[in-house]
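Dear H.,

Thanks for agreeing to be a second pair of eyes. The structure we're designing against is below in token form, covering all 252 positions.
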């Protein structure tokens, strides 16, 4: 029962508000407790004492953990997806720095990031870069250990379709992953290696605003795109269960 409540809390973070304030976390604690009681058909009153001892410590602390799962999904994909080089030569470092600046549009007066477009040069195909789907698949649809259902399957109603909040969190995580290459080599420590609310909430808010605007302008297309992301994630989960762990992203 507690396990289900904790996992559901993490799902709310990645589908409804990636950086929830204290009041929202408190409301979610009550919500996940009630849903867990319903699921287990065992009902316990959530007293203030129980909420303080149980929820605040064991559930709301998982807010950062939920975001960390996305961060961990991003880091192995950045170099392969965009072509960063692990070589330590000056030409390689120079190429990596130039690629980093290009993908985040850092040399523009007002940045218009390229990394999420299918065609990063022409900025065509909003949110259709292969890495976006790969992260969604890895973070929420890859089967767990001992045959456990991944969050995208266990809590499917929260991921169908993929929400704008989820997409904004993925964009923010890619931004974080790209920043690890800002000096021309992959960085594993220092301030830039931490995916914290202090450093990334403002970026998340910006990405969410842009995604909501895209969603409003292209409502029919947007709905289809987000549902396809969910369907492809489910397809990956099913194929992996059948013994195909290396299902490619392209064409999936």
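And this is the sequence the design step returned. I haven't edited it by hand at all.
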């Amino acid at each position: 029962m507690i396990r289900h409540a904790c996992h559901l809390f993490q799902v709310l973070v990645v589908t409804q508000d990636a950086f929830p304030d204290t009041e929202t976390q408190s409301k979610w604690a009550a919500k996940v407790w009630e849903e867990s009681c319903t699921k287990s058909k065992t009902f316990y009153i959530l007293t203030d004492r129980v909420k303080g001892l149980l929820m605040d410590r064991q559930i709301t602390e998982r807010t950062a953990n939920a975001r960390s799962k996305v961060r961990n999904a991003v880091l192995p994909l950045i170099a392969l997806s965009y072509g960063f080089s692990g070589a330590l030569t000056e030409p390689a470092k120079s190429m990596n720095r130039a690629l980093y600046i290009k993908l985040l549009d850092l040399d523009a007066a007002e940045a218009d990031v390229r990394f999420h477009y299918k065609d990063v040069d022409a900025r065509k195909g909003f949110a259709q870069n292969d890495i976006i789907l790969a992260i969604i698949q890895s973070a929420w649809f890859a089967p767990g250990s001992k045959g456990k259902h991944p969050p995208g399957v266990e809590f499917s109603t929260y991921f169908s379709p993929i929400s704008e909040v989820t997409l904004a969190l993925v964009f923010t995580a890619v931004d974080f992953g790209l920043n690890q290459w800002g000096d021309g080599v992959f960085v594993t420590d220092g301030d830039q290696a931490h995916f914290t609310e202090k450093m990334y909430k403002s970026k998340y808010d910006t990405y969410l605003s842009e995604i909501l605007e895209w969603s409003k302008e292209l409502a029919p297309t947007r709905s289809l795109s987000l549902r396809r992301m969910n369907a492809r994630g489910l397809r990956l989960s099913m194929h992996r269960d059948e013994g195909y762990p290396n299902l490619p992203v392209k064409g999936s």
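Two observations from my side: Confidence is low (pLDDT under 50) at residues 237-252. The longest helix spans residues 219-241.

Warmly,
E.
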